[in-house]
Amino acid sequence: MAVGSMPSNVSDRVPSTASEAPVAEAGRVWMSPASAYWGLFVIVFATFLTFFDMITFGMLAERIKQDFGLTDSQLGFLAGPAGIICYIFVGIPLARLADIYPRKYVLGLGAAVVGVIISLGGLAQTFNQFIATRIFLSAGGSAHAPAAYSMLADAFPPNKLTRAFALLQFGFIGGTSLGPIIGGTLVVASAGWATTHFAGLTILGWQWILIVLGLPSLIAGLLFLTVKEPARFAPASDAPHVPKDAPFGRRVLTFMGFDALKAINAKPKVYYPLFAALALSAIESFGMQFWRTPFLMRTFSWNEAQIGVAMSGVVLTASIAGLILGSVLVEWLAKKYKDANVRAAALCFSGVTICWIAAPLMPTAWSSITVMGFAAMFGLAGAVPQNAAIQRVAPNDMRGQVTAFYLFMFTFFGQMGSFVIGSVQDVFIGVDKDLWKALLITASTLLPLATFLMFKAIKPYRQEVERLEALEKGAA
Q1: Tens digit of each residue's pLDDT (9 = 90 or more) over 299-338
Q2: Which one, of 31, 42, 153, 154, lies nearest residue 107 by Cα?
Q3: Residue 11 included in any domain
Q4: Which domain holds residue 324?
């Protein structure tokens, strides 16, 4: 989830000097920088908590497997598909809330719900109860990214929006960098924590990590109440609009994503390769992110604390390098290509593919972690251009749901990653210490195809950007 210079979501007619009024398009006045950056800070904080939970949960993988007596397939299901069952039914409708209600309330409520459910995971007594918490956890956070992206697109002028998307990555960087070292340290320390019996519940030592982990998300939910909601701005668009007096059934279809899906299907050459490439890469990236701790433990006999310390430093360095690489690459490509976002993403996909295939083959834990770091660098470098590409071509009044469909591919197939790798391990490999073979098989199968599809998306995306630019100039 990188940076890069991105085309404007509105006309290119923006202030050229600091002395000019901060307007774009006739009558467009942007909110104050202080309000915009405060909103961005709260979004970054909430994003950080999301990824911190994801990484810490992955650090708990071996403890959960042992204490609940799970197979690798069950463990993979718990970390992945369990989190998308509810998303399938409520993710897109909840994203619609970001298109019609104040986004700060959508974000705040989602953060609060996520906090409560994470803590409930610490009270789970059975495998099925654990599954239930992961199901509803995904539902609570399903509107976060669509609402956050939509809010930022209306809070920052086009010439500042790239910076906002770059800063947003610090939520991801912080969660994935601090998650391994803090989570790993806590997991190892929890081995000495006594099991607690309370109100008929048996709470294992490591479960207290989840109970406490949910509290900061409640704070994030309250902080969103202090954020100023930016005015919505709809640029020129030829997308169909649903009248306010449309029949109830028609409005329900819109709420469920029918019109956003029509907008996507109307331009299959633009959207489909982007969606498919994201889906395939997410399976491996999410899967590897979850299974890297068991892989390093089984292959090199490291413990969670050792892995956490090593991964934190490598991921932090790789993430910062990814921000720089993504920014430089997209700005350089944008001087010559209108499709700079997708072109940069395709090049970064190539780097990710090479690194994830190579990582399981490394002879030592440190060399494997280092290659994983390069994969993280290329992944972050290409992430923001992917997101920016969708924001550029999605109709404004459907941006939340179009983004939700796009991120659904990332979430659904990404969450399937841990299960896919676990299933390959159980069905085809069968030996715990040979987990590296399952990682190699999935990476070699999925990532080359994802890279091919991203390259295939370059031309139709460029044509769509050129068409929208002509449409915007005609409406000026």
Answers
A1: 999 988 899 889 888 988 998 898 888 878 888 998 899 9
A2: 42
A3: no
A4: 33-227+238-475
